[in-house]
């Protein structure tokens, strides 16, 4: 639990950075950048927990997550030029963020007794819906509708975790499933891979 | 209950088709079309149940609804040209979908002990909010703000059901209220009827 | 409680007017104007209560709030030219609305046993998220991302209330915190004050 908790805080921190940077072409003020960092970091998990009726929400019961977000946003402000130039770094952190949150979301749904189908959807929601909510509020087409393979990578990683779950230990399963999501995502960006289009 | 359950699955199936088709001018990939089908089918009922604190959500506790959505999306993919050409058929199915979901939403709220005012709003939400969520995420002006009489038809049908409820049997009341919504909606489209505008 | 209840109804009434007017450049029909009035009035408190798992929602358990909204919308229809010309009046009522709802939201979260950090966020949500939801659904950039100091005023007022809370009586604290929010907001609009921008 100790290590998982630290990973969750680190994931929240990186999600807040990617959220705070999301608006940069619109020259957001401090509040707007903080708010989009906050939405990106807590949106997916909050939607999952509301849909599963799992209360209290993590960030409501433990203010550490709010401080991790604040720390991420302040880091973005202080090192704005450095951070926003690191496109490859951001891709990597965003991929780590969505993959880690996806697998933690799958585990939470399974532990609460929900079916594998629901767990896979909730895992994907945990990973990507923070960004979707952020994009919707800022009047952008959400990333899942426009970019290279994204939510699909989360669903594949969730499926991998659920299939391997009875056979291998949790740490190995997490490592394999997270690596799968990150690999698919990074390859998709570098090769420009998209899913087939309808028509 | 047997027949109602089958109707709910059929309604979900048709809503998923209309959702999967909603993006077609934007050339969605498989994931995007599936996701919009999913949102359209479950959005309204999910919002209603979250607002009424009625858990577990239907599609979370019964994976049949997820498979009905998947079946609808696959049908759209396989018969894309055929399905998207059937404009009148789509109008009819969409009207049947919103009217059926509206009345089921009204009944659910009444059975949970809520007031008629709340039941009417929850019925309308069940019918139209899936499409509203879909349109919002895909950066469209939601249908309820732009088209011919739509949500108002659901509110009128809900009111009809609530007024007749003490006097006639449930199957007759459902049939009359659903027919009222479908009729208003179809006439509105064919005659181009809109509500009066504010100034 | 008597006076607070009346204030809540009055706040709801004014929020419904500002919501119904929000679409006026788009020539909304009756339903659209009513619906945006409704969303503006109930959106923030509803989001707060869903996140805090505080059920039943106020407007679900007490239809008076729905009638206050309806009364606000009808007032807007009947006195449309008069009301929409009163720009200064609208600014004042909107400022009173967001400040009152912010402080009531802070108090609710504190009374439910949540931390000051969460109470401040929930207060701000109560004040501004109705408008954010309305703007998002109608495809506008939400007010909190584009206007002069807005949500930040709510956060400052919430902080003021939480800091003074142990030292002064509730009516004085409410009056001071609400006055602070209204003052910041009105000065920001008249002086065109914005927060510093990122970059």
Overview of this structure, please?
The structure is a homotrimer of 199-residue chains. Chain A is mostly helical. In chain A, 78% of the residues lie in helices and 0% in strands. Chain A contains ten helices and no strands. Chain A has helices spanning 2-22, 30-51, 58-61, 64-78, 80-85, 87-111, 116-137, 143-146, 151-164, 170-191. In chain A, helix 1 packs across helix 2 (30-51), helix 7 packs antiparallel against helix 9 and helix 9 (151-164) packs antiparallel against helix 10 (170-191). The longest helix of chain A is centred in the middle third of the chain and has 25 residues, at 87-111. Chain A is globular, with a radius of gyration of 16 Å. The interface between B and C is medium-sized, with 26 and 28 residues.
Summarize this structure briefly.
Chain A is mainly α and 199 residues long. Helix content of chain A is 78%, strand content 0%. In chain A, helix 1 crosses helix 2, helix 6 crosses helix 7 and helix 9 (151-164) packs antiparallel against helix 10 (170-191).
List keywords for this structure.
199 residues; mainly alpha; 0% strand
Break the fold down into its secondary structure elements and pairings:
3 copies of one chain form a homotrimer.
Chain A: H1 2-22, H2 30-51, H3 58-61, H4 64-78, H5 80-85, H6 87-111, H7 116-137, H8 143-146, H9 151-164, H10 170-191
């Amino acid at each position: 639990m100790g290590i998982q908790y630290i990973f969750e805080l680190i994931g929240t921190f990186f999600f807040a950075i990617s959220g705070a940077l999301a608006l940069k072409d619109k020259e957001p003020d401090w509040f707007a950048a903080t708010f989009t960092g906050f939405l990106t970091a807590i949106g997916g998990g909050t939607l999952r927990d509301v849909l599963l009726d799992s209360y209290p929400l993590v960030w409501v019961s433990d203010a550490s997550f709010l401080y991790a977000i604040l720390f991420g946003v302040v880091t973005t402000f202080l090192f704005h030029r450095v951070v926003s130039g690191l496109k490859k770094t951001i891709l990597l952190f965003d991929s780590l963020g969505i993959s880690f949150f996806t697998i933690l979301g799958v585990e939470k749904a399974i532990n609460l007794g929900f079916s594998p189908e629901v767990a896979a959807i909730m895992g994907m929601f945990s990973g990507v819906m923070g960004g979707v909510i952020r994009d919707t509020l800022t009047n952008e087409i959400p990333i899942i509708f426009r970019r290279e393979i994204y939510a699909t990578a989360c669903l594949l990683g969730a499926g991998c975790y659920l299939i391997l779950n009875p056979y291998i230990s949790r740490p190995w399963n997490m490592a394999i499933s997270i690596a799968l999501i990150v690999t698919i995502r990074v390859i998709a960006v570098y090769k420009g891979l998209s899913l087939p289009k309808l028509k």
